[in-house]
Every structure is written in C-alpha cells, then in structure tokens.
C-alpha cells in the first residue's frame, strides 16, 4: 500500500495552484492581489505558488503590469491532448471501414517511450473477435504498430528507449536490439510492419504509418487477428489496405507528401 502523506499540506498546495491557474484562465490575466482574494489566502502564499508555476512554464508574468497569464506549458499540454482527440476523430470512420472490409480488428496507436498506447479501435466483422485493445499499453518492439513508430526514430533515440536485451513475450519475440534494427530498416523500405506471434502466441498483425502535416510519423494503424485466420501469407494484401487507409488519415491531418 502506498504511504499516505503525513499531512494535507502538499495536497492543499496542489489544489491552490490548480485553482490559481483556473482563476488566471477565467480572467485572462490576474495579479497576486486578485488571486489571493479569490483563494482567500495571504498574498505571500500566492506569490510562492505563482513563482513555482512560472518556473515550470504554466504561467508567465506580464512585465508592464505585474500580472500573470497562462504560459506555454499549458498551451503545449492542451495541444497534445487536442492532437490525440483530432487523431481519433479523423481516423475512426476509416478504421471502421477497414475492419469491416478485412474482417479483423483495427487500432490506432501512438508511441510512449518504449511502449505504444492504443487510442482508437474498430472490431472486425469475423465471427471471433479479439479482446479490446483500446487504452492498453503494449511493448513497442513486440507489436507491428510499435515497429512502425520505432522505425521513424533516430538511431540514438532508439537506443536510449530500448535495452540491448529486449523482454520476451512469446517464442517469436525479437529480443536482440541489433535484430530489431534490421527489421526496422525493412519497415522503412517497404512502408509497413508485421508481427507474427511476437506479443502473444496465436496473434498476428500488420501496421502502417500515419503522418502529420509536416510528414512526421505520429501514429500507426494496425490490423490484427488470430493466426489461424490471419496467416502470414495474408500480410502483404492486408498491409496494402492498411497503408491506403493510413494514407487517407494522413491526408485528413494535412499531409500531402
């Protein structure tokens, strides 16, 4: 069991800091006196809170008036959130169409350090569907989506995210970084990735890259299914359909390469 704080002071400070941000957002800009009055605390307390928020970029001070407004960190966090919301909004119907066409489950995934997170999903029309992957985090090196996303990283970034000896999840999991790097080179050359029973025995998948308006790979569209139904022989055929759907999503996001 996690150790509980000895007092409520840290939690109270967090609550006050968040309330101060809400006040600044509501007013557009606010000074120490205004924020203190809203919070019902001494101005010295607010000064300390705002100093921490300013140091972290959550607020910035207007030099001419001594007031604070929201800083770039808030904008960056909001932009990240809206980007993921836009990705789901722009991709869901195409995921649905692809899942219906190929009869297998489709997912949209983003990279988070050495793992992927599935942010959208459409269940295939086949009689036996896989469990839902939405919101789940999976090891990037053992998934087709992860390989697509890792293949776009500079070599130094890839090495910093992954260990030389990678964790094994099934007999086919790639556990050597050098072997994975060879596979990633193939992914870059052919434009899609595959996994044959690497995350789980009996689970196969292919994936294609989704790009933003600057041409950066920001997500991957995958098709996955049980190996008895989605055999390796089908990979090129299904991958081509995944590439076409991923390209359509990319165009919606402003990519015209």
TrEMBL record:
HTH iclR-type domain location: 11-72
Protein name, as recorded: Glycerol operon regulatory protein
Single Gene Ontology MF annotation: DNA-binding transcription factor activity
GO biological process: glycerol metabolic process; negative regulation of DNA-templated transcription
Record-annotated IclR-ED domain positions: 73-255
A Pfam family recorded for this sequence: IclR_C
Keyword Phosphoprotein among UniProt keywords: no
Domain of life: Bacteria
Source organism of this protein record: Nocardia terrae
InterPro entries in the record: GAF-like_dom_sf (IPR029016), HTH_MetabolicPath_Reg (IPR050707), Tscrpt_reg_IclR_C (IPR014757), Tscrpt_reg_IclR_N (IPR005471), WH-like_DNA-bd_sf (IPR036388), WH_DNA-bd_sf (IPR036390)
Record's keyword terms, sorted: DNA-binding, Glycerol metabolism, Transcription, Transcription regulation
Keyword hit for Transcription regulation: yes
Function recorded in the entry: May be an activator protein for the gylABX operon.
